[in-house]
Amino acid sequence: MKFNMFCNKIHLPARSSIALAIVIASTGIHAFAQATIYADYPQKRGKIEPLQWSDLPSWMTLSMELRGRTEGQTSFNYTQNGDRIYELTRIYGAVEVRPTNFLTGYLQFIDTHALGLPTHVVAANMRDAFDLRQGYADLHGRPGGVPVDLFAGRQELKFGSERIIGISDWTNNSRTWDGFDARIGDKNRVDLFSTSVVAVHPTSLDKHGAGLTFHGAYGSISTWIPKVHLSPYVLVHTVRGVTSNQGVKGNEVETTFGAEVEGTLPANFDYEANASLQRGSYSNNSIHAGQNFDKLSYTIEKLPWEPRIGGEFDYATGDGHTNANRISTYDQSYPSNHNAFGLVDLFGYQNIRQERINLDLGPTKSLSVLVQGGFLNLAQKNDALYSSSASVTLKPPTGGFATDDIGQEFDASAKYVFHDYIVANIGVGHLFPGRVLLDNKHGAAETIGYFSLTYRFRVDKQAPTKQK
C-alpha cells in the first residue's frame, strides 16, 4: 500500500477564452502554471525521501513532513500599519501498518504553531498543539476485478482542482473529515462518502459536530473522451438549527450538483472549467445559487522557459435580497482557497467575480515562477463580502454597497526543489483596495510576503523506490 494512496491525482489548471483575449491584448503580463507544473498550489512538488531501518517490521512504514513558513503582512486583520512578521511551523508524523494484504491502518499526528503572534490574534487555521489529524482503516480488494477501497475514520477528501472539496494544505491546520469514503474503480472511478468536517480546537482534541453532515458522490472519468478528464459530482450538506429570513428556525438541506472538466486542445492550448448549481431548503426558505470558473491557457514551447499565458474567470452568486423567500449566496463548501483570489487569501468563493491574467515560467526543471494580476468585484452589491473561511468580512450598508469594486491584486511567487527533497517557496502579493474596502473601514492596502521550506521522508525496513 503506497504511503500516498489516499491522495488524488492533481489536475492542471486551464483558462477561460474571454480572459485569454484580455491577456493577449494586454501589455502587462500576469500569471499561472506550467503545462507540467501547477506552480504554487495545490500540487506538492519535490519527492519523499526514502529511508531504511532494518529493525522496522516489514508490515510497517513511518513517515514525516516538516514545514516552516515565515510570513510578513503590512495590514494584519485590515489594520493600517498593522505590520506583523511571524513563523508558522507544521509537523506531520505518521505510521502505516499492513497486517494483511486487504487491510491497511493509518495514523497521523499534527503539531502546528504560530510563533511571533499574540495568542488572541492567532487564526483558527494556524495553531493545533499535537492532535490526531488522520486515523483510518482502509479495506481494499478487487471484487469482480474492480478496485475498491473503503476508508473508515478520519481522513482527507480532495478532488480535482480542490476548488469544491480540498484539504487547504497551505493553511497550517489543513482540513480532514470523520466518516466513510468508498472508492470504486481506477482510471474511471467514483467516491461515495458520508462525513463530517473536523473542527480544530488548538488546546483540546479536534472533533466533528454531531452526526455526519456532508455526503456526496464524486466521479473521475479519464478514458471515455480522448484528452479529457471529466469529474461529475453531487454533494449534500445538512445543517441543524438555521434561521430563515423570516426568523423561522429549522434545518438546512443543500444539494450541489455539477461537473469539472479539464483537458488539452490543439496548438498548445489547455483548459479547465467547473460549474455547479445549488438547490435545497434553508428552514422555510429555498436555496437557488451557483458558481462557475473557466480557465484557458497557451504554452509557447519555442521560447526559452516555455512561457504559459492564461486567463481565468470566476463567479459565485450572491444574494440580491429581491426575494425574501430565497437564499442565493453560493455556499463554497470546503475548498482549497489559497491563491484562488490572490496570495493575500482574504476572500472566499461567495458573492464574488474575478478576472485574472497569468504568466507561468519554467526556467529549470527544479524552478517554476508564477506572476498574476487579478480584478475582484462583488457579484451582488446587496450581499456581504466573505472571507476565505466563508465568514462575513463586511456587511452591506442599507441599500447595498455603492460599488462592486473590491480591488485589484498583483502576485509573484516561485518554487524551487533542492536535491529532490527540500522544497522552497517564496512569494509576495499586494492588494490594491477598491471602493468596497475603502468606504467601509477596510481600506488599508495589504502586502504579504512569505518564504517556506518543506521536507518529507518515509522509513521502511528496506529502502523503497524513490517516489514523488
What is this structure's SSE topology?
Layout: H1 17-25, E1 49-52, E2 60-73, E3 84-100, E4 103-115, E5 128-141, E6 148-155, E7 177-185, E8 188-199, E9 207-208, E10 214-221, E11 228-243, E12 249-265, E13 269-282, E14 285-299, E15 308-316, E16 326-327, E17 352-361, E18 367-377, E19 385-386, E20 392-394, E21 405-418, E22 422-433, H2 435-438, E23 446-460
Parallel strand pairs: 1-23, 14-16
Antiparallel strand pairs: 2-3, 2-23, 3-4, 4-5, 5-6, 6-7, 7-8, 8-9, 8-10, 10-11, 11-12, 12-13, 13-14, 14-15, 15-17, 17-18, 18-21, 19-20, 21-22, 22-23
Pfam family, one: Alginate_exp
Organism: Granulicella mallensis (strain ATCC BAA-1857 / DSM 23137 / MP5ACTX8)
Protein name: Alginate export domain-containing protein
How would you explain this protein's 3D organization?
The chain is an all-beta fold and 468 residues long. The chain has one domain (17-460): Porin. It is built from 2 helices and 23 strands. It has helices spanning 17-25, 435-438; strands at residues 49-52, 60-73, 84-100, 103-115, 128-141, 148-155, 177-185, 188-199, 207-208, 214-221, 228-243, 249-265, 269-282, 285-299, 308-316, 326-327, 352-361, 367-377, 385-386, 392-394, 405-418, 422-433, 446-460. The strands form 2 sheets. It has an 18-stranded antiparallel barrel. The longest helix is centred in the first third of the chain and has 9 residues, at 17-25. It starts with 16 loop residues before the first helix and ends in an 8-residue tail after the last strand. Pfam families: Alginate_exp (PF13372). Keywords: Signal. This is Alginate export domain-containing protein. Residues 1-35 form the signal peptide. Residues 60-447 form the Alginate export domain.
